[in-house]
Design brief:
Layout (H helix, E strand, L loop, with lengths): L1 H9 L7 H15 L4 H11 L6 E4 L8 H6 L3 E6 L2 H14 L4 E5 L12 E7 L8 H11 E12 L6 H13 L20 H10 L3 E14 L2 H9 L3 H7 L4 H18 L6 E13 L1
Parallel strand pairs: 1-2, 1-4, 2-3, 4-5
Antiparallel strand pairs: 5-7, 6-7
Helix pairs in contact: 1-10, 2-5, 2-9, 7-11, 9-11
Length: 284
């Protein structure tokens, strides 16, 4: 399955186009964003977001970070370059009756906002994916008020992401020669997996008092299908990988995942999958 390996080894050279994220928006909203709320609340507490403050979410998706911020009473602007993601965010805002939250389609490399506009600028699993992360971080700093704070949540090393181990392990059952995730250079998803790299990028963007907190995303699954949906709708890359599989291979992969999840969930009926994350915070 050379085509599968080709998708993995070239992902770090280009970001998925906005249309690819558009195609995931409904599933992302249903399967992924709700699992992000616990980590988002932890990160927002660390950055000290308060009711009434103006909060900018960059590369927001359907609101995994910005909806919890709005629920805290912040005035929220969620931005993403995918129109469908913003549409789903705005639908959630209407459903929950959140009065001070809006979404706008915007490229994180060139935010259409004035300097010194927001109290807190944040991104959870967003700017970790962009092709020019230093530029995106500089933009986040530019629009933050002096004394304001910038928050970035990104995945840690691939070896410390349990979901990746499960998915790649199941893929090996179907494609035994699959070489796994490359590390030289790593895909964009892991460009700031080293906490020192993330710290330095935040410093270089113009922040002071930078600190990196280590935490974990804890996703909960009851079946292999739930894990499949969470992985497939979380990023365009897995869809590219399994798109090369036959129907029989996909069924086998799902079956292996289901066995893994049910074994882990045997005691409680709920499998908790922990993924290491870096939470970076700095002050302008």
């Amino acid at each position: 399955m050379a085509a599968i390996q080709e998708h993995v080894t070239t992902t770090d050279e280009r970001a998925a186009p906005w249309a690819a994220w558009d195609a995931l928006a409904t599933g992302y909203d249903r399967y992924v964003a709700p699992q992000e709320a616990e980590l988002a609340n932890e990160a927002l507490a660390l950055v000290g977001l308060r009711a009434g403050q103006r909060f900018l979410d960059v590369a927001a998706g359907t609101g995994g970070l910005s909806l919890p911020a709005a629920r805290l009473g912040a005035t929220v602007l969620a931005t993403d370059w995918s129109p469908a993601m913003i549409e789903r965010f705005e639908a959630r805002v209407r459903e929950e009756g959140l009065p001070d939250a809006e979404g706008r389609v915007m490229d994180c490399h060139a935010l259409q906002l004035a300097d010194n506009t927001v109290d807190v600028a944040g991104s959870q699993f967003g700017v970790m994916l962009v092709p020019d992360q230093p530029r995106a971080l500089q933009e986040m700093v530019r629009v933050t008020k002096p004394g304001g704070r910038v928050l970035v949540v990104a995945y840690g090393p691939p070896a410390e992401l349990e979901f990746l181990g499960l998915f790649v392990g199941a893929l090996h059952a179907v494609v035994p020669d699959f070489a796994g995730v490359p590390d030289d250079p790593p895909p964009l998803e892991f460009q700031a997996a080293d906490p020192e790299v993330l710290r330095q990028r935040l410093v270089d963007a113009g922040l002071k008092g930078v600190r990196i907190e280590s935490s974990a995303e804890r996703a909960v699954f009851r079946s292999g299908q739930e894990l499949w949906d969470w992985v497939l709708y979380g990023n365009p890359l897995p869809g590219m990988l399994v798109g090369e599989l036959s129907d029989d291979q996909r069924a086998t992969l799902k079956g292996v995942l289901d066995g893994m999840v049910r074994e882990r969930a045997a005691a409680t009926g709920r499998a908790i999958v922990e993924n290491r994350v870096n939470i970076g915070i700095g002050t302008k």
